[in-house]
Specification:
Layout lengths: L2 H15 L45 E5 L16 E2 L1 E5 L12 E7 L4 H4 L3 E11 L2 E7 L5 E8 L3 E7 L6 E8 L6 E6 L4 E6 L16 E7 L3 E8 L2 E4 L3 E4 L2 E7 L5 E9 L3 H11 L5 H16 L2 E4 L3 H14 L4 E2 L5 E4 L4 E4 L3 E2 L3 H4 L3 H8 L4 H15 L19 H10 L7 H13 L25 H7 L10 H21 L3 H10 L7 E2 L4 E2 L21 H4 L7 H8 L1 H13 L23 H14 L16 H11 L1 E2 L7 E4 L6 E4 L10 E6 L7 E7 L2 E2 L4 E3 H5 L2 E8 L7
Parallel strand pairs: 28-32
Antiparallel strand pairs: 1-3, 2-5, 3-4, 4-9, 5-6, 6-7, 7-8, 8-17, 9-16, 10-11, 10-15, 11-12, 12-17, 13-14, 13-16, 18-27, 19-22, 20-21, 23-24, 25-26, 26-31, 27-28, 29-30, 29-32
Helix pairs in contact: 5-18, 8-9, 9-10, 9-12, 10-12, 12-13, 15-16
């Protein structure tokens, strides 16, 4: 690619995707929430962000959202294309492909409540919609052409909804307590207290995990207006004047006096008990007004968003960046309630701190490394929660929702634990971490040689590392014995590397040596004759179908899935073939940025002495895959991983190898970014300065770290944590300085 062509492509990208270049300083807005757009990623049919415009504080236990469609696995609560709203939900659905659980839905209506009201949809338009992390508002029009304005705000475990029904109406609020055929719900109207309480045991992902007899999502709803009439329903059969209902699909409604214009509902949620839901409501909302709670959550978001500030750039770019921060700060969700938590791993109540909903196969790559920088005070609780799940259920999970699901492969909780320990996070018990990770590495799941471990297979015991029995014996997972065998081998080798780092930190050097040796098992599935990773049979021969054995990808996707040993892979393939295959990945349209296995690929040219190529690719994908628009994310965000990639790409470095302290240099986005990763000491900061950076000046001409020349395209975590400056000189042409 000649230099003039590079300039032309960079100019085209800047015109099409980056918006007007209005330069802004860090002081242009002390309220960084003005740059957030929770609707990014909500618009699409298939390959899009699949995000939801949640109202919640960072890492909130319960998220509040407008519902435009019935929530199911593979179907979100909200899609920007939809034209109707069917209710407002306290949701625990973390991602499109996972299930909701323990939810409750409120729906405002007017007039007489009938069976039709239960399925009634209200028309809405985006011109009458406001979406912020701390606040959502929308105007809806019922089938009878009555208009209702709804506002939502939230605390960690509670929500407030305010309904304006207009004049001369008979207002109702319908409360759906339970909707799944296999689970009961219960609801009760207390007419003396103007209160509705209830629970459900609904878990949409229940078939993928163990039974949980004690699981319930509890709610307490307190209204500020007296009830005029009421009733319940069971499986769409209304029961006027009834105050209590137990059924697999049930709910209740309350009607307020005619001409009651505004109704405020305060909702407490809990996984522990009704009493705890009430306590959460008292502690987090009590007698506070809607505006007070809205402002409180507003400030919580601003505190977290201000941990990375930007100088320069343009408004459009800031909207994309701070919206990515919003998405990256939603998960894992808090699961503990003032010193106690329900565990979905032993179905009991415990003392302590807990988090849940980890999309680990996705988020170990960039989200969890990012949280070490953006929310370090949260990381010990997140890591210890994974270890607690091991103690309570037998293994750390792959994708808790809220218990084991067996979704995806390998045991990447190992990477999250290792990354935190290697990067110096305090408050983690090394012995417990070692025990949990070593079980992943050394103890095959029950029935390992009898099952193929199909993805999303009904629960028959926790999968852990599928094919680990064969892996330990043969050095690889055989395709004729276990599904996704090549991917299981490669990702297992990476996890071995991660567990080795935990063993080293715990002083277990024999285990470290064993697992570092095993981390080379990727060599056993590399077919030198084809130059690709390939499936092998249990007898050692190559499988007859080279395309078998991969997870959400192909032989192209997994060729470079050796994040822990790029120098070893480069030596194995030879530099010429390494570079050729990398270029074929990108130029041949085989790289899919919208899925996670290749998220580190742009940065791999750093290892081959072609850092300028990494710089071009990072700038290119950053520009074309992220936009300030509801369809502005070209791939499933998966609990913040796509967003975390974008944030790291803007900072100018990326954690290719979680479980190590090394970051690969990309190319910075803004003239200056300041990272405040210690919220208590904002004088300790790390600045990334990019002189002359622009859509055209995307190539690094030189770089210094704290005044010293950077001799390679890599920096270390301690360089960032100690504070200082990373300074880039940028220009329009590649410079082969590394």
């Amino acid at each position: 690619m000649n230099n003039l062509y590079r300039l032309f492509i960079a100019l085209l990208v800047s015109i099409c995707f980056l918006g007007p270049s209005i330069r802004l300083s860090a002081q242009d807005s002390k309220d960084l929430t003005v740059f957030t757009n929770p609707l990014i990623g909500t618009k699409g049919i298939w390959f899009y962000g699949r995000t939801t415009p949640f109202v919640t504080p960072p890492f909130g236990m319960t998220h509040w959202t407008a519902c435009t469609r019935p929530s199911r696995i593979a179907k979100g609560n909200y899609n920007y294309y939809d034209m109707h709203i069917i209710g407002f939900r306290a949701s625990h659905k973390p991602a499109m492909w996972m299930g909701d659980y323990g939810f409750v839905t409120l729906k405002p209506t007017t007039g007489t409540v009938t069976e039709k009201s239960l399925k009634q949809k209200a028309l809405y338009g985006h011109l009458h919609e406001v979406s912020k992390p701390y606040y959502y508002a929308v105007g809806i029009t019922e089938p009878n052409l009555q208009n209702i304005h709804t506002e939502m705000t939230a605390t960690e475990r509670c929500g407030m909804l305010k309904f304006d029904f207009g004049k001369n109406q008979t207002p109702n609020v319908l409360i759906e307590a339970s909707q799944l055929p296999d689970f009961n719900g219960w609801i009760k109207i207390d007419t003396a207290k103007d209160e509705v309480i209830g629970w459900n045991s609904d878990r949409q992902s229940s078939r993928l995990g163990p039974p949980l007899p004690n699981f319930k999502g509890y709610f307490v709803i307190q209204f500020d207006q007296a009830f005029d009439s009421w009733g319940t329903w069971e499986n769409e059969v209304l029961k006027k004047d009834s105050t209590t209902q137990l059924a697999n699909a049930c709910g209740a409604w309350v009607t307020f006096g005619k001409n009651t214009r505004t109704v405020v509902a305060r909702i407490g949620t809990s996984f522990i008990s009704l009493e705890q839901a009430r306590e959460n409501l008292q502690k987090e909302i009590a007698d506070a007004t809607f505006e007070q709670i809205k402002e409180q959550t507003h400030q919580k978001w601003n505190e977290y968003l201000s941990r990375i500030t930007i100088d320069g750039g343009n408004k459009n770019a800031r909207h994309i960046f701070y919206s990515a921060m919003y998405h990256a700060l939603l998960f894992p969700r808090q699961f503990s309630e003032y010193g106690r938590y329900y565990s979905a791993f032993d179905d009991k109540i415990h003392n302590g701190v807990s988090y849940n909903d980890y999309s680990l196969w996705d988020t170990y790559r960039a989200l969890h490394p990012l949280l070490i920088l953006m929310a370090p005070e949260r990381v010990p609780g997140m890591v210890n929660s994974l270890i607690q799940m091991y103690e309570e259920g037998g293994y750390m999970p792959k994708w808790p929702n809220p218990t084991y699901t067996g979704i995806m492969i390998a045991t990447h909780a190992d990477a999250v634990v290792a990354d935190a320990i290697v990067k110096g996070i305090k408050g983690i018990d090394l012995q417990k971490a070692y025990d949990a990770c070593m079980k992943d590495a050394m103890v095959p799941p029950v029935g390992d040689t009898l099952k193929r471990w199909a993805d999303r297979a009904p629960w028959s015991g926790y999968e852990a590392r599928a094919g680990l029995t064969y892996y330990m014996k043969l050095g690889y997972v055989p395709v004729d014995k276990t599904n996704e065998s090549v991917a299981n081998t490669l990702e297992g080798a990476f996890d071995d590397y991660c567990v080795a780092q935990v063993a080293k930190a715990a002083g277990k050097m024999d285990s470290y040596d064993l697992l570092m040796k095993r981390s080379k098992n990727y060599l056993n599935v590399y077919n030198k004759a084809t130059g690709f990773m390939a499936p092998r049979l249990a007898n050692g021969q190559w499988g007859p179908k080279p395309g078998d054995g991969f997870t959400e990808g192909s032989k192209w996707t997994y060729l470079f899935a050796v994040q822990h040993d790029m120098p070893g892979l480069l030596n194995l393939m030879g530099k010429d073939l390494f570079v050729k295959r990398l270029n074929e990945n990108f130029r041949g349209g085989r790289y899919i940025h919208g899925n996670e296995p290749g998220h580190h690929y742009c940065f791999l040219f750093d290892y081959a002495g072609m850092a300028w190529r990494t710089q071009w690719l990072v700038a290119y994908y950053r520009a074309i895959k992220y936009r300030n628009d509801p369809d502005g994310m070209d791939g499933d965000d998966d609990c913040g991983q796509m967003s975390a990639w974008y944030i790291f790409s803007c900072l100018g470095f990326y954690p290719v190898t979680p479980g190590s302290d090394v970051y690969a240099i990309g190319t910075p986005k803004f003239p200056k970014m300041t990272l405040y990763f210690d919220p208590e000491h904002r004088d300790r900061k790390f600045e990334i300065i990019a002189h002359h950076v622009s859509p055209l000046n995307l190539y690094i001409q030189s770089a210094t770290l704290n005044g010293k020349k950077l001799d390679s395209p890599f920096i270390h975590h301690q360089d960032i944590e100690a504070g200082g400056q990373l300074v880039f000189e940028m220009g329009p042409f590649p410079k082969k300085n590394w």
